[in-house]
Every structure is written in C-alpha cells, then in structure tokens.
Amino acid sequence: MTTTSVRGPGAPRLLWLPAALAVGLLVMPVVALVVRASWATLPEDVSSQAARQALALSLGTSLAATACCLVLGVPLALVLARATGWAADVLRALVTLPLVLPPTVGGIALLYLLGRRGLVGRSLDAWFGVTIPFTTTAVVIAQVFVAMPFLVLGLEGALRTAGTRFETVAATLGAGRWTTLRRVTLPLAAPGLLAGTVLCFARALGEFGATALFAGNTPGVTQTMPLAIYAAFNGAGVTQGAAVALSLLLVVAAVAVLLVARAWRPGRMAGA
Amino acid sequence: MSDLDGTVIGRGQGRAVGRPGGGARGGPGGQPDDAARGALVADVHVRRGAFTLAAALAVEPGRVTAVLGPNGAGKSTLLALLAGTLGVERGHVRVGDRVLTRTMPGERDVHVPVDRRSVGLLGQDPLVFPHLDVLENVAFGPRAAGVRPAHARDEAAAWLEAVGLGDLARRRPDELSGGQRQRVALARALAARPDALLLDEPFAQLDVRTAAELRDVVREHVRAARVPTVLVTHDVVDVLALADHVVVLHDGDVVEQGDPVTVLTDPVHPFTAALADLNLLRVTPITPAGAGAPALLRSPSLALTVPADAFASWVEKASAGVTFSTHDAWQLTFSPGDVRICGVADGTGDRPGDGAADARADDVSARDGRAQLAWDAVVVDVERGPRGLRVRTTDDVLVDVAAASAVALDLRPGSPVRLRVAAPDVRVRAV
C-alpha cells in the first residue's frame, strides 16, 4: 500500500531562510572545531597529564555539584511547586536569578559572600579557619550556584504538571506524606527530574566565569576543562592542540547528555 | 463470586496495621473486621462564600446511600468533608465509634488527616498511578499500611481476580480500557480496606454496557466487604442499580430522602422530578362553585380543570398522614408520556402520547371511564424525546408525542395547545 504523506499546515516558507541561518550559527562553530582539530595527535593531546587532570577535575566537581543540587534543589522544587502567593512568586524569580546573571557577576558575588573578608567568609575564617575561595570546594560551589536553577525549574515544572490528584488518591489509600513522596510524587516527576539533572550536570561541566573569579585557575585544584582551554589559548598550561581536543570532548559530552535527556520519556522505560 | 469464598489471604495473624481496632486483614471474601466497621454518620455544616451546606446522613455497613443533586448543590463539598480534604465549620463525621471530624461547641476539635481516615474514594477519573503496573496499583494501599510487598501483591492479585482482571495484573495502566482502569481503581480502593467508601460519579465516563458491568461489581463488593458507601451521582440509573437510600441535595440542603423507589416515583422536589422524568406542577386548588361543576387548579400561569368527583376523592384521600385540604398548595406529578396533546386551532387532532387518536370529548368528562385534568397551554420548544419528540409547554410541563403527531398538529414554539392527563395518572400531595 502506498501512503501519501499529508502535510499539515507548516511554517511560512519565508521563515526557512532565517531558520537555516540560525542552524548554521549554532552548528558551524562546532564544525570549525572539528575541522581545526589535529586528529593525528588527538589521542596524545587528550591523554597528556594536564588534560587528564583537567578532565578528572571537571568530572569530579560536576558530579559533586550535581549531587549538591539534587540534595538541595529537590526539596526546593517540591516547596515551590506547592507554594502559592506572592512570596512564592518572589522566590521563584530569585531561583532563576543565576540564569540571567552573567556568571562572572556570580563569581564576584560568591567572593563577596564567602571570600576571606566576605559576609560569611569572614566568620568562617575567624571561627573555623576555613577558607573557601581558590579551592576545589569553591569550584563546586560556583557550579552549584549556576547549575541549580536548571534542576529546580525542570523538576518544579514536572511537579506542577503532575498536579496533586494522584497524591490525594495515595492519601485516601492510607499513604503518609513520605510514602506519597517516595512512591507517587517523585516517580511521577521522574522525567522532569532526570532532564533537570542532566541539564544541571551539563551546565556544571561547562561552567567558566564564576569559577574563574571565585576559584581561580590552579592546575589540578581549580583548573577545570573550560579553564584549561582558556588558559591554553592564552599560551599557558596545555597546548592549543590539547585545548581543541578538550573542547571536542566537551562537545561530545554535551551532545550525549542532551540526547539522553531527549530520548528518555515516561513509559519508554517500561518497554511495552 | 463463589470462587472467591475460599480466598482468604492471611496476613500476620491478627497483626494490627496502624488502624484503631485493626484486626486480621484478608483479601476479598475474607472475614470483614466488624469491630472496626460501623455506620458512616455525618452531620455537617460548612459555609463557602455565599454557599452553605447543611447535610446529615447515616449509612449502614454494606449499604449505599446515593446523593443526588444538580451541579452546585453541594455534592462535591459533602464528599470533601467526608474524605477530610475539607474541614467542617460545625458538626461531625464518624464511622462506628471512630470520630473522623468533629467541631462542636464544648468538645475537643478532631480532624483526622486524609491518610489516616481510612475512607476510600473512587472518582469519575480512575487516576490509576501511571508509573505502576496494575498489580502494584492495587497493592499500594496494603503496602502503605505496612504489609510486606510480597503479601501485599498476593492480596492485590486476589482483588484483581475479584473484579475480573486477574489476567491483567502485569499490564501498564495505559494499556487498559476506561472500564478496566475503573475496575483497577475499585480494586485498589477496596484493597486498602476502607472503613467507608465514597463514589463520585464513577460510571459517568463509561459506555452504557461497561457502566452496567461495573455497577454489578461495585454492588457485590460493597455488600461483601460491608463498607458503608456514599455514591454521588446525576444518573438515575446509578440510583436504581445501587442505592439503598437516596438523599437529594439542593442549594446545600437535603430537600428529600428515602428509599429510591419512593423518592423517584413520588418526588417532592422539582429536581428529583426532573431526574425521575416526571412533570411536577405546584397548584392552588379552588373548590368547585356548585355541585357537579369542575374544580379549578391554578399554577403560576395555568388553570387546570378537574372533574368534581376526582377532586373530591383527592381531598378525601389521606397520604403519608397528611390530609389534603383545599387550603394547601398541592403538588401534581405525572409522566410526560401520560399527557395527551391536541391543537386548539382546529380542535380535532387530539393525540395521545402513544400516537392513538381520540375523538375530541368534553374536557372534564370521563373518557374510558377515567376523569381527566385539562388545560390550555402554549408550546415553548420542541426537542427529541424518548418516544419521538418532547414538547415543553407553559410552566415547563413536558409532553411526549410521536414525531408524526407533532407534524400533524403543527407543534412549534408559540402554538396554543390543549393538554389532558387522566386523573389516576396524576400523583397529588399537599405541600
């Protein structure tokens, strides 16, 4: 049987040109990166000690930051999703602040908060002798700061979409709040939680500005991949070839992460 | 369900499961724990904005009380009060000796939260958990009560068997039909061993046959599990199939209640009459002027004549302890199918609802030996009806006619008509 495809009302043809330009603008830089890469020395570049150090630090800090975001962000999303009134609206706006703030501003703000003479950092230094800036901890904090909104907003949206009807049903079946959270609320919001987590991890992996200002650029301690790449182009640390190789690695990681987030839909895991 | 009689699923010998008086639990057909069961009794008052609900009901274990009422009558509010999602302003809700809600002067306030009330809910939308398979859905209640997962699943499997879904245990909810999902929701509600069950139009979204099957399943299990059940509905079929008692709510008040047959055949309230598909006319009787003269019954815009002897018999008749007197307002109820219609213009086309033609006779004379009420009215609108067309006339009196008769009589909005109904077909009560 032959099928004729029936075309729905598509977008006006005139829009195709700017759309194509948009795709070009988004994709061509990556293509240029691939073309520029010296494929022969790629394995060597990626496995150089400086590169491996940066890669390990990036993965380690991003995972730690994602874990922090889950521990703190899931409760926040649960509270926000069920909160009403102006206070909740203000809170929601504040949560999105790191999204619209330039990361460098975030870095400065973190420095003024947690620096040795900062609002809170002063007390940490005086009472506990703890100094946060320019440590690996600072890298994680900077990443949490910029990545948290992705998790919170993703999960909050999923929770709102799911609504409270299933939770009420669970309550009539005798389930207390914790049981309902564990067996109904979170599983129903799982797609949003996963998508939020993936985006959160990707954002942490790519974080540069806040890290540079708040954590610095010490190889092995605070020099994550984006910082290593930046340093390489300024003639320090890893070679430019390694920088390009690392960039490609980040691109591959980001694409993989986004594909995973897109492919996963509720019910698919069921394998009907 | 004789195959269920032997299905008793033991659960930790008499282990209390976090419910007062909770004893041994069992699957369907297991011995219900009567100590924990009792009548659902509620007497609630609540105000929400301009709306006030004041309702009282008592439902014995294994019985179904249907709550009828138009939209906005307070049915959902009543269910929310019983389920505990809404608090009362004054009054109480209890099952047996367990107080679920109480706000009474001089007594300690009680409001047991939803998850500890043990009041099951089955709504229009089955709300089967989409992330759990059928078996886990049904096992949810027992597991929430602390039953070990394996036992909970055994129990759930027995309940699924009981509602006829034994072979679908491992299906995902999105693979089921609407009727199957509603069965899962019923099994899930019953598996949680509720002390009371609330049904909120659970058949409204099902096709006629599926709804009928599910009504049977509900009736059987409500009886077997001895759960006091409140059914909220618009549908008279639900009432006839399930209800032991009917409460009619209107504007937040109980306007009538009783056993379904009485309420539906002799309705007091216009809403109930409409639901039972009956005309209800409030009239003021005017005694015949002289011997043999017809009596007159006046409604807001109608004047009905009735033969003197029929009128006299109504006046003499005593019903439900009330003696009719000509001082009362009367309420007439009669079926749209019993009204005969004839056009006034040509005065010849007397057409009864069943399509047979009558010779035109004196309005108040006995025809077929039966006295008749007769009155003039005007057609308001014409729509499709159960027996052809349904004609709405002055004061919302409905008349069923065959489509052919409607054409022959040229019935259209504004047409004057003469209506008749045999006196024995009219129920009369003083109000």
Give the biggest beta sheet of chain A. none
Q: Which CATH first-tier class of chain A would you pick?
A: Mainly Alpha
The average pLDDT value of chain B, as a whole number, equals 82
What is the chain-wise order of helices and strands of chain A? HHHHHHHHHHHHH
Q: Cα distance, first to last residue of chain B?
A: 46 Å
Q: What's the number of extended β-strand segments of chain B?
A: 23
Major sheet description of chain B: 6 strands, mixed
GO molecular function, one term (chain A): molybdate ion transmembrane transporter activity
Membrane topology (chain A): Multi-pass membrane protein
Domain ABC transmembrane type-1 (chain A): 55-261
Pfam families (chain A): BPD_transp_1 (PF00528)
Give a nutshell description of this structure.
The complex is a heterodimer of chains A (272) and B (431). Chain A has 13 helices and no strands.
Strands, helices and their partners?
The complex is a heterodimer of chains A (272) and B (431).
Chain A: H1 16-36, H2 42-46, H3 49-82, H4 86-100, H5 103-114, H6 121-128, H7 136-162, H8 165-172, H9 177-188, H10 190-206, H11 209-214, H12 225-233, H13 240-263
Helix pairs in contact in A: 1-13, 3-7, 3-10, 3-12, 4-7, 7-10, 8-9, 10-13, 12-13
Chain B: E1 40-48, E2 51-59, E3 64-68, H1 75-83, E4 90-95, E5 98-103, E6 110-111, E7 119-122, H2 134-144, H3 149-162, H4 178-191, E8 196-200, H5 208-225, E9 229-233, H6 236-242, E10 245-250, E11 253-258, H7 260-265, H8 270-275, E12 279-286, E13 295-298, E14 303-306, H9 308-316, E15 318-319, E16 322-323, E17 330-334, E18 339-343, E19 372-385, E20 388-393, E21 397-401, H10 403-408, E22 416-422, E23 427-430
Parallel strand pairs in B: 3-9, 3-10, 7-8, 8-9
Antiparallel strand pairs in B: 1-2, 1-4, 4-5, 5-6, 10-11, 12-13, 12-17, 13-14, 15-16, 17-23, 18-22, 19-20, 19-22, 20-21
